[in-house]
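JOB MANIFEST
job_type = single_chain_structure
chain_count = 1
residues = 126
[input]
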Amino acid sequence: QVQLVESGGGLVQPGESLRLSCAVSGGFNYYAMGWFCQAPGKEREFVAAISYSGGNTYYSDSAKGRFTISRDNSKNTVYLQMNSLKPEDTAVYYCAKGRQSHTTVVQTTRGGYDAWGPGTQVTVSS
């Protein structure tokens, strides 16, 4: 059974950076991975995704230019480098495993993922 565990969240000031990590056990190398976030009172929304080879990435409009998703298949880990953080980035961040294996297509909706981590809190505040 696949397990995902996020880490790296915390409290930072506007303009600062954080690097989130998601360690995956039980199946990783052949699946796309995604990051989503959920702010209080809001739906969980897509942030970024990466194909199983790392060759394709996709970002939400709010993440584009500030966040970078990457993966290290030798460590079964996916990362989200978050720069120039804003108060509106405050949310719980979740990593997720893609539903289909061996595809270069990355999904931007929750239905494209079938396993989730418990989340890590990111708070951006002065």
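[summary]
The first strand starts at residue 3 and ends at 7.
The two ends are 40 Å apart (CA to CA).
exit_status = 0
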